[in-house]
Amino acid sequence: MTSLKESMKKDLLEFEKIINYDFKNKELLQIALTHSSFANEHKCFLYNERLEFLGDSVLGLVVSDYIFNVKKNFPEGKLTKIRATVVCEESLSKVAKQINIGNYLFLGKGEKISGGRNRISILADAIEAVIAAIYIDGGYECAKEFILFYLRDTIHNTIDGNIFRDYKTILQEIIQSKNEKLTYKLVDEKGPDHNKEFEMQVRSGGDVLGEGKGKNKKEAEKEAAKNALIKMGQL
């Protein structure tokens, strides 16, 4: 029977091929892909939270430096908004899915069963951890190359105003991470059949998180979710 460490080594080598980066220190990549739930089950393993912390800063610096130099006429406020849109869970989770990082994460049994391999927050955190691991292993330029390879299109789409943000999914992930549930409720409907306006509330428990209006219920729900995220300081 293949031992745990042998199977982990196989996964690490496969993942290196996917991201086209060969780690000098393989342990860094192992830590980057290890979730706390796995480390808690296997007491001898470190996990990726400290790397996430560093990776977030490296990511922010690379994106800031890139847009600062690409858009020399943009004021500070606009640069900040672009960076916030790029450096977010949604963008990072898309990168994570592109490289199938979820398949290579070392998760505890409970986290696997509850869908951890597809959870946006876990995927985004893992990408930040991998960025930090590359930064430590190969330096700033290697980390920059990795970040821009996967996020350059997102940066330019954001600059051009072509980025689409799925506010309902973002809000749902945030609320699920707190073990709470979201509900949407129709609170008003007015106007003639050919020109109706719907007003929806999004709630968690008994709390109203946000309200939104639209020409149909789905549009109103999206607006409610967006307004909830703004109130929560997530946008």
UniProtKB/TrEMBL annotation:
Residues 166-234 form the DRBM domain. GO terms for cellular component: cytoplasm. NCBIfam families: RNaseIII. Its EC number is 3.1.26.3. It is found in: Cytoplasm. The active site is at D56, E128. It holds the Pfam family Ribonucleas_3_3. The gene is rnc. The keyword Iron-sulfur does not apply. Its cofactor is Mg(2+). GO terms for molecular function: double-stranded RNA binding; identical protein binding; metal ion binding; ribonuclease III activity; rRNA binding. GO terms for biological process: mRNA processing; regulation of gene expression; rRNA processing; tRNA processing. This is Ribonuclease 3. Mg(2+) binds at E52, D125, E128. It comes from Peptostreptococcus porci.
